[in-house]
């Protein structure tokens, strides 16, 4: 079949590499893609937010199946528009994508379905939010209701910090319309994990787990980012815990979505806090994680394209999902200044040398080419260096030896990715 993958990050590079290997794939396209993706797919110049442009491009290129990487096009209704055009798609409808694009919707659904999550309240008026904050114990968590690129969450240690976060979202509008409504919830203590389940609307199946590193600096210090590195699987989620999470969180969610007339098709990515009292849902994402995908897919033994297509056809129960007995770890290289402001255009060298290291793959996350054809930085998160090995520790050593081959003075990375798993 002719396949189109939407997006331009490290996640989409990993998806493209996996789909390109599939015997079911006759021709692979990516929109808009990046210079790394160009070596496995034909890149089409349409941005991921241009819903009508993407549908038109898919029609023109006779695409049979579309896989959507990021959340924004899903929240804009790309899956609905493709289906109307008669094109199969992996990814939820606009209404089902509200599990990610509206924290209020997600929290209310959890409440009704009895899914364990932090106690919360949803606010549309700043005065009510302020009054609530004054009555609460600290720390407390303030969240913009809508999409905010992973930056809409404040963990406030003091009442003043909490009031400032409420003001910034609701009065200062630093998240635009996404922060007009907010959710205020209790702080959960524990270790975080990313849990992925595939869903075809009626059946949910466990895919795999990973752990991300959200803070920008070593030792989990500094502001949160989109993710500075990851490994897979997450050692703390064993088979018994997997079954518990499927039973207590994923399956009831799928059922509740079906009952609401919003059947969920795609990957349900649960951000979990593993608390002393058990797993608690922090958030849902309705897409693959980035950088989690970069460490999950190199472990997959079964054919990814076959699995995702079966999902889109309501036939998830007919496929095998098997894994190789390896671990994977990735290190994100970012532009100096990220997650704050950063410069674009610096030249990156040594990518070929890095990829010569055994079982290493250099995934492009935010790169472009300059007029001379050199690879340059074009975003906050720029590269994702992924390695597989029999243990996380060996994967970490491989990934960092590849990082050390890269000549990019304007970039940085964390040097401790994997520390939790290795210390266990
Ligand atoms: P979210 O965008 O909802 O995933 O939140 C971003 C990050 O904030 C999460 O990955 C957690 O590290 C943290 N966080 C969010 N909600 C809570 C909570 N209720 N308790 C503790 N940490 C949280
Ligand atoms: N790694 C975090 C995310 O994809 O949302």
How would you describe this protein?
Helix content is 30%, strand content 28%. It is an alpha+beta fold and 424 residues long. It folds into four domains: 88 residues, Rossmann fold (3-Layer(aba) Sandwich); 56 residues, Dna Ligase, domain 1 (2-Layer Sandwich); 128 residues, ATP-grasp fold, B domain (D-amino Acid Aminotransferase, Chain A, domain 1), CATH 3.30.470.20; 97 residues, Glycinamide Ribonucleotide Synthetase, Chain A, domain 4, CATH 3.90.600.10. The strands form five sheets. Strands 10, 11, 14, 15, 16, 17, 18, 21 and 22 form a nine-stranded antiparallel β-sheet that branches. The protein binds adenosine monophosphate (AMP) and glycine.
Radius of gyration: 21 Å
Structural class: alpha+beta
Shape: globular
Identify the bound ligands. adenosine monophosphate, glycine
Q: Let me know the average pLDDT.
A: 96
- Largest beta-sheet details: 9 strands, antiparallel
CATH class of the largest domain: Alpha Beta
Uncertain stretches of 5 or more adjacent residues: none
Strand composition percent? 25-35%
Return the domain count.
4
List the helices and strands and how they pair.
Layout lengths: L1 E6 L2 H11 L6 E6 L9 E2 L7 H10 L4 E4 L2 H5 L2 H7 L3 E3 L7 H4 L1 H11 L6 E4 L2 H10 L4 E5 L8 E4 L2 H12 L11 E5 L4 E10 L3 E9 L2 E3 L3 E4 L4 E4 L6 H21 L5 E11 L2 E8 L6 H5 L7 H9 L14 E9 L15 H5 L4 E5 L2 E3 L5 E3 L3 E9 L2 H12 L7 E2 L6 H5 L1
Parallel strand pairs: 1-2, 1-4, 2-3, 4-5
Antiparallel strand pairs: 6-9, 7-8, 7-9, 10-11, 10-15, 11-14, 12-13, 14-17, 15-16, 17-21, 17-22, 18-21, 19-20
The site of glycine (GLY) has 8 residues, from loops.
């Amino acid at each position: 079949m002719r396949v189109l993958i939407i997006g331009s990050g490290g996640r989409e590079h990993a998806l493209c590499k996996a789909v390109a290997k599939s015997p079911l794939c006759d021709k692979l396209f990516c929109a808009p893609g990046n210079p790394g993706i160009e070596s496995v797919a034909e890149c089409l110049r349409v941005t991921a937010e241009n819903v009508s442009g993407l549908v038109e491009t898919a029609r023109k290129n006779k695409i049979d199946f579309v896989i959507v990487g990021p959340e924004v096009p899903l929240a804009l209704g790309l899956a609905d528009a493709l289906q109307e055009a008669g094109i199969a798609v992996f990814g939820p409808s606009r209404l089902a994508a509200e599990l990610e694009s509206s924290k209020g919707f997600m929290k209310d659904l959890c409440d009704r379905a009895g899914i364990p999550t932090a106690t919360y309240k949803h606010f549309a008026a700043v005065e009510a939010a302020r009054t609530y904050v004054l009555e609460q114990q600290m720390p407390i968590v303030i969240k913009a209701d809508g999409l905010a690129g992973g930056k809409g969450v404040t963990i406030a240690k003091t009442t003043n910090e909490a009031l400032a976060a409420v003001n910034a979202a609701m009065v200062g509008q630093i998240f635009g319309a996404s922060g007009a409504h907010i959710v205020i919830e209790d702080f959960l203590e524990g270790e975080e994990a990313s849990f992925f389940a595939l869903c075809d609307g009626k059946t949910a199946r466990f895919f795999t787990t990973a752990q991300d590193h959200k803070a920008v600096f070593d030792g989990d210090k500094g502001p949160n980012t989109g993710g500075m590195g990851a490994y897979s699987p997450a050692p703390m989620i064993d088979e018994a815990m997997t079954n518990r999470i499927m039973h207590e969180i994923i399956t009831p969610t799928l059922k509740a979505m079906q009952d609401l007339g919003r059947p969920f098709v795609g990957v349900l990515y649960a951000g979990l806090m593993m608390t002393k009292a058990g797993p608690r849902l922090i958030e849902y994402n309705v897409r693959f994680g980035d950088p989690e995908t970069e460490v999950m897919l190199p472990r997959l033994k079964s054919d990814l394209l076959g699995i995702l297509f079966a999902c889109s056809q309501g036939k998830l129960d007919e496929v095998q999902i098997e894994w190789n007995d390896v671990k994977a770890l990735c290190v994100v290289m970012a532009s100096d200044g990220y997650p704050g402001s950063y410069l674009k255009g610096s030249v990156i060298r040594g990518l070929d040398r890095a990829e010569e290291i055994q079982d290493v793959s250099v995934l492009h996350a935010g790169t472009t080419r300059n007029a001379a054809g050199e690879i340059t930085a074009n975003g906050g998160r720029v590269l994702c260096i992924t390695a597989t090995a029999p243990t996380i520790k060996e994967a970490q050593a491989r990934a960092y030896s590849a990082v050390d081959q890269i000549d990019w003075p304007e970039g940085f990375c964390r040097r401790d990715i994997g520390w939790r798993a290795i210390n266990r």
